[in-house]
Amino acid sequence: MKLELVHLADENSQLTLKTRENDRDRDRDRDRDRETEASCHLLGAGQRDCSILWWEQARAIVVVPFFKFLVALCLIMSVMYFVEVMYMGIVVAYVKLFKRKPEKVYKWEAMENDAECGSKSFPMVLVQIPMYNEKEVCEQSIAAACKISWPSNRIIIQVLDDSTDPASKELVRRECERWSREGVNITFEIRDNRNGYKAGALREGMKHSYVKQCDYIAIFDADFQPEPDFLHRTVPFLIHNPKLALVQGRVLSEGEK
User: Where is the Glycosyltransferase 2-like domain (predicted)?
Assistant: First the structure.
């Protein structure tokens, strides 16, 4: 009986030891888990701190200066717009108050024949008419240019034909010959290429020797029909205003003429 009690006591003590060991193992596992969790929390906090620090540095170096530049640019544009509005307002108010018109700004006097010099008192004018397959309007435009009221010995009509259509080219040539027979100083110029197109034709026309004697140049498109007094109304602006380089006329429709 005593022996059995001893065995039971030993078994109970062994169970108690195992239970304690198991408890200690569980405690160690819990402590290890807590340490791991704490280290993870510390790592996450460190990453967040690094991200915040990086963003603050980027904002200070890049973002803030960029937005400051945009603000300064907007201020400059606002000032420029304000100055422009003020300038336009002053100009409009000045025109409204003093009623100054363009024709009063520049000097203009009608041209008259000089008793001593005769037609030589008129400047020499070159009229350039560039054309390209304009058989529908070439006759009207050439005729209108040839009918301009100006001393015949003080004007040269230069027709610059870049037509690729043989029929159009022949029609322009015949029209120029017809007006030449009537005493008009007209020339028919062609070239073997179309370099520069319209501008190239005008530039090529300026290379002819007879152009050197001309004082002014008038350019009409192939579909323009200038009024006979066109030069009398425009050339005086150039004569009496030496700083003026160009006079442009308004194109009128058939109903406005």
Answer: 128-254
Q: Where are the domains of the chain?
A: 1-100, 119-240
Backbone angles phi, psi at 91, to 5 degrees: -65, -45
Note the pTM of the prediction, 2 decimals: 0.58
Distances, alpha carbon 249 to alpha carbons 110, 131, 233, in Å: 17, 20, 10
- Start-to-end Cα distance in the chain: 146
The first and second tokens of residue 173, run together, are: 């040539």
Q: What is the CATH number of domain 119-240?
A: 3.90.550.10
The tens-digit pLDDT sequence of the chain (257 residues) is 444 444 444 555 555 555 666 666 666 666 665 655 555 554 455 556 667 777 777 777 777 888 888 999 999 999 999 999 999 988 888 877 876 665 557 888 888 777 677 778 899 999 999 999 988 889 999 999 999 999 999 999 999 999 999 999 999 999 999 999 999 999 999 998 889 999 999 999 999 999 999 999 999 998 889 999 999 999 999 999 988 889 988 877 555 55
